Amino acid sequence: MKVGIIGGGAVGLLTAVNLTKGGHQVTVYVRREEQKHEINKGGVSLVPDYKNFPVRALLLEELRKEDIIMIAVKQYHLSDILPRLQSYLNIPLIFLQNGMGHLELLSPLKDSHQMLLGVLEYGALKHDDYTVEQTGKGICRIASLSELSATSNQTIHKLATSSYPINLEEDWYHMLAQKLVVNAVINPLTALFQVKNESLLENEHLLWLAEKLCQEACEVLGLSSGKSWEIVKRIVYQTKENYSSMCKDIEAGRRTEIEAISGYILKKTQCDLVYTSFAYRSIKALEMNAGGLKDD
């Protein structure tokens, strides 16, 4: 099956590798000519074995018809991407973004396009333009945002392989909200203290703060704080050796996704969320102190 992946960041490259392992023909659409050249020269390399996988790269403006298109860019890049997808009415579009802030952007297209949402349980670490590493274990969860045709449903089922396991979820809201809680706990805390995920379990003070963030997020999103807290701890343990994407962004002086995560939660309530507000303001302060932030 021909799969197009928009975005040559960590998630895009890792998704390309795992789908290529499963026998799919994968094209990654990137923004820079340099990255296109490097990928086309030798494929995408997977750490730790540095085995190369035959992935093709094209520039975003060269976007063509695929059997399925996966959008693996940060939320703040979606407004530039969506106009390019207007004409792809009958092709499943899977959006792989953190947070829930992008739902408002996607809303105008959901009645006319075959749109799905996806979340990954594992992490991805980009080493350079053509080298990526999977951190942690897990699956990709996918749920439909719009009513899918029978053909699109068949296409989604064909996408799943042993190297890219997929679980189809019925409730997209619960799926995204639960992932948002996980992100709202892990990302800002690990970014603020520049620690691996495991520190949230090992440091009693970080563990206390993590539970407070979880409780506030669940209150706003209408989830059970008890069940969600157990899920957060499980994900932290599964990805204990990871540095979160926000942690890496702060370290590299890049723009973070704090608006799509903690910012989204704060906008959804009139209540005073003490811990979430502090986490949000603290990350924004670090972004400001970094000066001119780079996009990924």
UniProtKB/TrEMBL annotation:
Q: Name one GO molecular function term.
A: 2-dehydropantoate 2-reductase activity
Which chemical reaction does it catalyze? Answer: (R)-pantoate + NADP(+) = 2-dehydropantoate + NADPH + H(+)
Keywords of the record: NADP, Oxidoreductase, Pantothenate biosynthesis
* Broad enzyme group: oxidoreductase
Keyword Calcium among UniProt keywords: no
Pathway annotation from the record: Cofactor biosynthesis; (R)-pantothenate biosynthesis; (R)-pantoate from 3-methyl-2-oxobutanoate: step 2/2
Q: Name one Pfam family in it.
A: ApbA_C
- Tell me the Gene3D superfamilies matching this sequence: N-(1-d-carboxylethyl)-l-norvaline Dehydrogenase, domain 2 (1.10.1040.10), NAD(P)-binding Rossmann-like Domain (3.40.50.720)
Q: What does the record list as GO biological process? A: pantothenate biosynthetic process
Looking up InterPro entries in the UniProt record yields: 6-PGluconate_DH-like_C_sf, 6PGD_dom2, ApbA, Ketopantoate_reductase, KPA_reductase, KPR_N, NAD(P)-bd_dom_sf
Every copy of the Ketopantoate reductase N-terminal domain together lies at 3-145
Give the EC number(s) under which this enzyme is classified: 1.1.1.169
Q: Which GO terms describe its cellular component?
A: cytoplasm
Domain Ketopantoate reductase C-terminal positions = 173-284
What the record says about family reads:
Belongs to the ketopantoate reductase family.
| Stated role | Catalyzes the NADPH-dependent reduction of ketopantoate into pantoic acid.
Tell me the protein's name.
2-dehydropantoate 2-reductase
